[in-house]
Amino acid sequence: MKTPELITEPAAWQARCAAARDGGARIALVPTMGYLHAGHLSLLREARRRADVAGGPGLAVASIFVNPTQFGPTEDLSRYPRDLDGDLRKCGEAGIDWVLAPSDPRSMFAPGHETWVDVSGVSQGLCGASRPGHFRGVATVVTKLFNLTRPHVALFGEKDFQQLAVIRAMVRDLAFGLEVLGMPIVREPDGLALSSRNAYLSADERARAVALSRSVREAQEATARGERDAAALRARARARLEAAPARVDYVEIVHPETLRPVDVAAPGSVMLVAAYVGATRLIDNGRLP
After folding, report:
1. Which one from 40, 113, 134, 152 is the annotated catalytic residue?
2. From CA 49, how far away is CA 19, in angstroms rounded?
3. Is 104 annotated in some ligand binding site?
């Protein structure tokens, strides 16, 4: 197992990445907030493969940064799980070359920071409605990571489906000139989508949390049988969540690119759900057949 090189200063990271790219390296980046699980590892392994796809010198890199600007004032920034040593070990197992983990958040967001990236349209509604300012923080920090790294490809998980849509729109509209690759959700054997926030769940809450994936799967099964009424599908999913019990944030069926709600669940539409199990907010989604 290789040990990835840890870089804590964004300026040093930028210089190293620029030199590598100028030297012909193909760079694949995985931005994370750390506390890595098997879902992250699928991204890291694919980054290794994508970096080496051209047959030349490839550079697979990851960032670990709990971004304060995407947390609301009452959210879990201070207690978000962290394990840098464990994360570095997992990055090494996945073949990552370098890891950027800023030692001081002020190196990414200095006092007096005034520039923000807002992506309208796909950031509206869903998590954008529940977490005001969240996607502004996401888009801004990802823009910074793209500018620091200048990757050829960046990899994100599809569990955060709206986040992926926001980043794709930003890359398209601002002409970043890189590929954004979405990777499938990785799940526990019982269907629960892997999430760093699953660590918050008690044993009882963990058992109840599987209602999110079951509500999505049942909608997929219903559409496979011919159900196309989005309202009926949403109602069944909401009932499944409330019976868990879980406190529903939203249940929606949307167009896969615009994320606008649909009345008819056409093939390829996406069901997205968010609910609180205990005090923990979880999300899940799935494409409808």
Report:
1. 40
2. 21
3. no
14 annotated to a ligand binding site: no
Omega within 30 of 0 (cis) for the link into 261: no
pLDDT 10s digits, 65-83: 999 999 999 999 999 999 9
Q: Can you list the positions of beta strands (E) in the chain?
A: 5-7, 26-32, 58-64, 98-100, 153-157, 179-183, 247-254, 270-277, 280-287
Q: What is the pLDDT of residues 33-69, one digit of tens each?
A: 999 999 999 999 999 999 998 677 799 999 999 999 9
Antiparallel, parallel or unpaired: β 280-287 and 247-254: unpaired
Distance CA 136, CA 147 (A): 16
Determine the residue type at 123: S
Per-residue confidence (pLDDT) for residue 258, from 0 to 100: 96
> How many alpha carbons fall within 13 Å on the CB side of residue 61?
30
Is 134 considered catalytic here?
Answer: no
CA distance 82 to 64: 10
Cα–Cα distance, 16 to 247 (Å, whole number): 46
CB 80 within 8 A of CB 66: yes
